[in-house]
Specification:
Number of helices: 14
Shape: globular
CATH superfamily of the largest domain: Alpha/Beta hydrolase fold, catalytic domain
CATH class of the largest domain: Alpha Beta
Number of domains: 2
CATH topology of the largest domain: Rossmann fold
Oligomer: single chain
Largest sheet: 8 strands, mixed
Structural class: alpha/beta
Distance between the termini: 58 Å
Length: 344
């Protein structure tokens, strides 16, 4: 009986909660209070998408929407609230089963400031680069346990995000990419595989272009190489909500997304210089337009394309049951091909 209720509650989770990174949850910052009517209206219109179990549990129990940029409301109907409570219990049990391993947290002094990073597992190094306004562990909560079975995972938190404190001045993709490169050198890591989601995918591409000796293969999802790659409605909302002098991390991120990546940071010509194999992933309802994703795919000399049906921007959290085997197959296939070439 409980198992059946849990399955139903997991289904409700997929309807009611938004699993996008902060980059594409632009309208979720207008209130810090629980809004009973909003979720009822949103549920009726089916506006919300699949979310991260761990984030939803923390956010609901804390009655806060801002933890990872998610807005959470509770239905006013008392019966549905009771079902939601049961759902949370089921989700918590599911999360506990899916996160049996724990990460070891470390920090490094990089370019005069601290960068925190999580590590776990053993084997070939696999670097996970998180989405905007998120963290390494949270963006890939559905991947870390799976891939740490056969890989040494390194998941840094970029400046002002996750556990890493902010620094004065604006955010910059170039600065975050150079922080990542220096962290890999500090850890004496070269020729590593990199998985990047959203902003993390942008950093992965830039890393392969400017520090090719550090990167062996790339997996990227939900990536744009210019602000125009965003859906027009999201780009317009960013413009409407800009402030002259960003100071908070949310304001800095909004300014970053409206103005970057710049053409000097990423363009089709620079992508053509990437010789490493790249797996390009997108949801067919992604926050990055499919046309923009196809331009990236066609510009890369050695790329594979994976478009997930019925999927929004939250590919890693929302479609892990599809995506994890696809990523594993890509890494194994490319590794086998490279080994065959070496033996010839």
């Amino acid at each position: 009986m409980i198992a059946n209720y849990c399955n139903k509650m997991i289904y409700l989770k997929n309807i009611y909660f938004d699993g996008r990174d902060r980059k594409h949850a632009l309208t979720d910052r207008d209130s810090g209070r629980l809004d009973l009517s909003a979720l009822r209206e949103s549920a009726l219109s089916n506006q919300f998408h699949r979310g991260s179990v761990e984030s939803m549990y923390r956010s609901v129990t804390a009655k806060s929407w801002i933890r990872h940029g998610f807005r959470i409301s509770v239905l006013a109907n008392a019966g549905v609230i009771a079902l939601l409570t049961l759902w949370l219990t089921c989700v918590r049990a599911d999360t506990m089963r899916g996160s049996e391993r724990t990460s070891e947290w470390n920090k490094a002094n990089i370019h005069g400031h601290k960068i925190y990073y999580a590590v776990r597992g053993s084997g070939p190094t696999l670097v996970f680069l998180h989405g905007g306004g998120d963290s390494g562990e949270h963006s890939f909560v559905r991947q870390l346990d799976v891939f740490s079975e056969h890989h040494h995972i390194v998941a840094p938190d970029q400046v002002g995000q996750g556990r890493t404190p902010d620094v004065p001045g604006p955010l910059s993709y170039t600065a975050m990419m150079e922080d990542t490169a220096e962290l890999l050198r500090t850890l004496r890591l070269r020729h590593v595989d990199v998985v990047g989601f959203s902003d993390g995918g942008i950093l992965a591409l830039m890393l392969a272009i400017r520090h090719p000796e550090l990167v062996r293969r790339l997996v990227i999802s939900g990536v744009n190489i210019a602000p125009e790659g965003l859906r027009p409605e999201d780009l317009e909302e960013l413009r409407a909500n800009q402030i002259p002098k960003p100071t908070t991390i949310d304001e800095k991120l909004s300014h970053l997304w409206l103005t970057s990546p710049s053409e000097a940071e990423l363009n089709l010509g620079l992508l053509a210089k990437i010789t490493q194999p790249v797996l390009v992933i997108s949801g067919d309802r992604d926050a990055i337009t499919l046309e923009h994703t196809l331009k990236i795919f066609h510009a890369l000399p050695d790329a594979e394309l994976c478009v997930l049906p019925g999927t929004d921007h939250a590919t890693f959290s929302g479609r892990s049951e599809w995506l994890n085997p696809i990523i594993s197959a890509f890494l194994d296939r490319v590794r086998s091909t490279a080994s065959e070439k070496e033996t010839r």
